[in-house]
Amino acid sequence: MPHNKFSRFQTEQEVGQEVERFQKFLEREDLMENTILGYTWTIRYFLCTYHTVNEDTLLKYKSYLVSGFSPATANQRIQAVNKYLRFIDFKYHVKAVKVQQKPFLENVISMQDYKFLKRKLKMDNPTYYFLIWGMACTGARISEILCIKAEHIVDGQMDFYGKGKKYRRIYFIKDYQNECLKWLESMDKSSGYIFLKGDGGRLTIKGVEKQLKSFARIYTIDKAVMYPHSFRHLFGKTFYENYHDLPLLADLMGHASLDTTRIYSRRTSAEQASIINKIVTW
Questions:
Q1: Contact criterion met (CB below 8 Å) for 59 and 46
Q2: Would you kindly state where each structural domain of the chain is located, as residue ranges?
Q3: Which fold has domain 12-87?
Q4: What is the C-alpha to C-alpha distance for residues 195 and 144, in angstroms, rounded to an integer?
């Protein structure tokens, strides 16, 4: 049945059919699996709650998001809704919630703790050794890192479309490439995904998050800094400290706006506190 943007979705079956159509559209857009999952969940909730799409229901949904969620979460849901509006050719755009960027980085693993963790994992868990090193030396998102294949390591780089359909190339530094190739050779692995579980299945984002918390406990590292994006932040912060080129860093990290990248020109909250304690003696 052709889609009508003024239709009312009264039953779960009607909502399910519409969400399925939207999902196929997203798959054709070649979005990440987790992005598709988040977008379809959002639209399922919206249609089950408001039953129809018009400016009134869209504004009610935005008010619900603003009153109950952080600006970042609200904007993720709004982004999903706007993608759906484009899908149904609805000439309306829900404005994003303004997010005030913090003047400091929060909960970023220190270089000292990162190097300590690497040393431990090299002996105890090679898979996570290369996964964590990969995040920290490329600035890649965890969803991107888990897509690395042996062929990418051989090439020394990985090309794909990231957030916002932005083309991006991830480079593997020579030390990482050479050591990773030796690891893959020791497992007689020359193709396919490299970050796998014991049963041969691919590692998942939730699985990695859980394992990092476990490492925090085992190696006595602050659990607040043991999450995947912490290593992406470490890359951004350390790269900028050594090479003050924000446009280049934005390209390497896949940022659409320099405003997003600019956070890496700032100190962490711990560094700010340390500087204040050294300087302020009055």
A1: no
A2: 12-87, 111-279
A3: DNA polymerase; domain 1 (1.10.150)
A4: 11
Neighbours of 97 (CB within 10 A): 17
Question: Going by DSSP bridges, is the β-strand pair 157-161/167-171 parallel, antiparallel, or unpaired?
Answer: antiparallel
Chain-centre distance of CA 117, in angstroms? 22
DSSP state letter for 171? E
Tell me the whole-structure pTM to 2 decimals.
0.67
Alpha carbons 18 and 43: distance in angstroms, whole number? 9
155: which residues sit within 8 A by CB, 6+ positions away? none
Rounded distance between C-alpha atoms, residue 93 and residue 85, angstroms = 8
Do you know the residue count of the chain? 282
The domain 111-279 having CATH identifier 3.40.718.10: the answer here is no
Answer whether 65's CB lies under 8 Å from 77's CB: yes
**Per the structure block, which two tokens stand in for 28?**
């054709």
* Tens-digit pLDDT profile for residues 212-271: 999 999 999 999 999 999 999 999 999 998 998 989 998 898 888 888 888 888 877 778
- Give the CA angle between residues 196, 201, 203 to the nearest 5°: 50
Output the CA torsion sign for 129, 135, 136, 137: positive
Task: Report d(CA 175, CA 153) in Å as an integer.
Answer: 11
Closest CA to 132 of 195, 182, 185: 195
